[in-house]
């Protein structure tokens, strides 16, 4: 049975993630209000938003290499500490020596650059820390993935109240303090052995290429990455473009936008927490759960095209969030189970970069489509694309390996993927860890053939050339 120390490590890791997530939610609200109050310029506010979001496209992939070189614990601490210091510098410099606009943009860019790898760094720590605490990986991931959703639902409104009462500068100080406290919690609460650096002496660029090569050589990870890219492409425009246009053109009242976003956020928080108990039986099949969630999301998006009244639309948004809730903890669990420890930082970093890369295109595409064919056809097209994507996924075999570690599943039942065939999936030693008497998170070290093959990929001299 796990001791109190191991459980405290998991609590410290989760607490740090919640503090960081709430800080990010505060930043989302306070930075634009701070810049707008300081410059009285919408253009300057837009530039600040651009400077803060641009690093998201590449910082995750680059940060993933550093996670595998230095260890997730070190990168998590450095990322939060540097982000906290840079965030605090903004109001300090502005109140003392002054802060020209170029310097402000540089600070916001640097803050986002150093803060981005923190999430992937903490994700890389979940599996060993949860296993030591005796907590199922699905449960730990549900608790973990609820943080950013809860941060937006609770943290963003609290930040707005804080700014209204005390000013935007105070919000930045609160964000900085939360990030520094998150760094301290990981420093003192998470053992160094849970995040030892695992990469060899290969160069930085070589390790980045190796991470991409590993994703390509693991069909289940490659399929999930492609799936997430397409679904994020369909999702990214929903809140910033489609919902605002809907409230303006159909409901004729912009105040409904807040209710719709709040309903979606509450549903997402609920769905994320409910996934942990439901994953034991009801949602035990990861593949069916993922595809089922996307079928529900597609159907609900199509129902919005029927222009329901406000009360019904709020209910639809709540259900949309509920259906989306299990996806992040589910996908994180599968990735942690299949990807070897020495490559998790790069795989999670690349996945984050790929997922975010489609967001600008999604917003542009949705805006063009609404202007060219109208809101209702655009909603129908985006919703129908979900169902088409699921239909395509059902024809493939790669996603079957998502259930290789699921309770009661097996590599054979999941269907042999190409990488399993290369590794010798028929080997009796390559059976599911769960068949040996426990969930995969409880079993130290990789035993599945997919992971053995992935480790060989990382050691193979020709990889990345």
UniProtKB/TrEMBL annotation:
An example Gene Ontology CC term for this record: plasma membrane
GO MF annotation terms: transmembrane transporter activity
Localisation: Cell inner membrane
UniProt domain Major facilitator superfamily (MFS) profile: residue ranges: 221-465
SUPFAM superfamilies noted in UniProt: MFS general substrate transporter
Compositionally skewed regions (Basic and acidic residues) per UniProt: 450-465
Keywords assigned: Cell membrane, Membrane, Transmembrane, Transmembrane helix, Transport
Domain of life: Bacteria
Membrane protein topology class: Multi-pass membrane protein
Membrane-crossing residue ranges in chain numbering: 12-35, 47-67, 150-173, 179-199, 220-244, 256-276, 288-306, 312-336, 348-368, 374-394
Comp. bias intervals (Low complexity): 409-418
Region feature Disordered, mapped onto this chain: 409-465
PANTHER family (UniProt xref): ENTEROBACTIN EXPORTER ENTS, INTEGRAL MEMBRANE EFFLUX PROTEIN-RELATED
Family in the record: Belongs to the major facilitator superfamily. Drug:H(+) antiporter-3 (DHA3) (TC 2.A.1.21) family.
Name recorded for this polypeptide: Multidrug efflux pump Tap
Organism: Micromonospora lupini str. Lupac 08
């Amino acid at each position: 049975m796990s001791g109190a120390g191991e459980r405290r490590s998991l609590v410290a890791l989760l607490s740090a993630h919640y503090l960081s997530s709430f800080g990010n939610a505060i930043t989302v609200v306070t930075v634009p209000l701070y810049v707008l109050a300081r410059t009285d310029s919408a253009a300057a506010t837009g530039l600040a938003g651009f400077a803060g979001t641009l690093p998201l496209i590449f910082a995750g992939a680059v940060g993933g290499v550093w996670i595998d070189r230095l260890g997730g614990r070190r990168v998590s601490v450095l990322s939060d500490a540097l982000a906290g210091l840079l965030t605090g510098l903004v109001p300090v410099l502005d109140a003392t020596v002054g802060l020209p606009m170029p310097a402000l943009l540089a600070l916001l860019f640097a803050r986002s650059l150093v803060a981005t790898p923190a999430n992937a760094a903490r994700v890389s720590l979940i599996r060993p820390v949860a296993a030591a605490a005796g907590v199922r990986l699905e449960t730990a991931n549900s608790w973990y993935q609820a943080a950013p959703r809860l941060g937006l639902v609770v943290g963003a409104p609290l930040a707005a109240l804080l700014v209204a009462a005390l000013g935007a500068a105070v919000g930045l100080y609160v964000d900085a303090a939360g990030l520094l406290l998150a760094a301290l919690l990981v420093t003192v609460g998470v053992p160094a052995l849970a995040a030892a650096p695992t990469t060899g002496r290969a160069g930085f660029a070589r390790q980045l290429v190796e991470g991409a090569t590993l994703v390509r050589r693991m069909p289940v990870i490659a399929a999930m990455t492609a799936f997430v890219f397409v679904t994020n492409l369909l999702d990214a425009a929903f809140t910033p473009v489609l919902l605002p246009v809907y409230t303006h053109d159909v409901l004729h009242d912009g105040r409904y936008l807040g209710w719709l976003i709040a309903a979606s956020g509450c549903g997402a928080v609920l769905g994320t927490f409910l996934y942990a108990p439901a994953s034991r039986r009801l949602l035990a099949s990861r593949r069916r759960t993922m595809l089922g969630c996307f079928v529900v999301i597609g159907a609900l998006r199509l129902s919005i095209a029927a222009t329901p009244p406000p009360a019904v639309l709020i209910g639809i948004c709540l259900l949309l969030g509920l259906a989306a809730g299990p996806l992040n903890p589910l996908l994180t669990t599968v990735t942690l189970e299949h990807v070897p420890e020495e490559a998790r930082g790069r795989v999670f970093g690349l996945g984050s970069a790929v997922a975010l890369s489609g967001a600008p295109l999604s917003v542009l595409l949705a805006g063009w489509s609404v202007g060219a064919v109208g809101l209702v056809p655009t909603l129908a097209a985006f919703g129908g694309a979900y169902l088409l994507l699921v239909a395509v996924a059902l024809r493939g075999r790669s996603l079957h390996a998502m259930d290789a570690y699921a309770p009661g599943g097996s590599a054979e039942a999941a269907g042999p993927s190409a990488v399993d065939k290369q590794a010798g999936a028929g080997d009796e030693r390559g059976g599911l860890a769960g068949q040996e008497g426990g969930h995969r998170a409880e079993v130290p070290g990789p035993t599945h053939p997919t992971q053995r093959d992935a480790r060989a990929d990382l050691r193979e001299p020709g990889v990345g050339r």
